[in-house]
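Reviewers of the previous submission asked for a worked example of the structure-prediction workflow described in the proposal, so we include one complete record here. The input consisted solely of the amino acid sequence. No template or homolog information was supplied to the procedure at any stage.
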Amino acid sequence: MTSRRGDAWLDLIQVVARVEAELGKVLQARHGLGLTEFRALEMLARSPDSELRMQELAAQLSLNQSSVSRMVERMERAGLTVRDLCPDDKRGVYTVLTDRGRARLEDARPDYARALDAALQAHGGAKLLSARAVKAR
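From that input alone, the workflow returned the following structure tokens.
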């Protein structure tokens, strides 16, 4: 026997998965970025000095350390980020957004926003979000 809450949760997971798949396709096709890379660039752009410790980036993306290291390595090869040592603790490694990374993010944001709106509309996410907004008031 299933519950309404369980059914709603499953519906939400399916909407999120479909929306994220469409976002990933658009970002890859138009900007050569994966969805997680886009999110990493966004988080770096919003961070003080456009940098985060690798552990902080991993936590914000809900990824393990090795996955974040591989992703940052790809972004470094593309010139989107650079690594920097923490001046106070040489064991601490930061990833820093470059001008090229900021430009790629700026170019991708409008396509991301349009794709997000379209995917939410197509998969019922807009309705879920508007219901959530009404409850939050």
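The beta strands are 51-53, 81-85, 93-97. We consider this example representative of the routine output the project will generate in years two and three.
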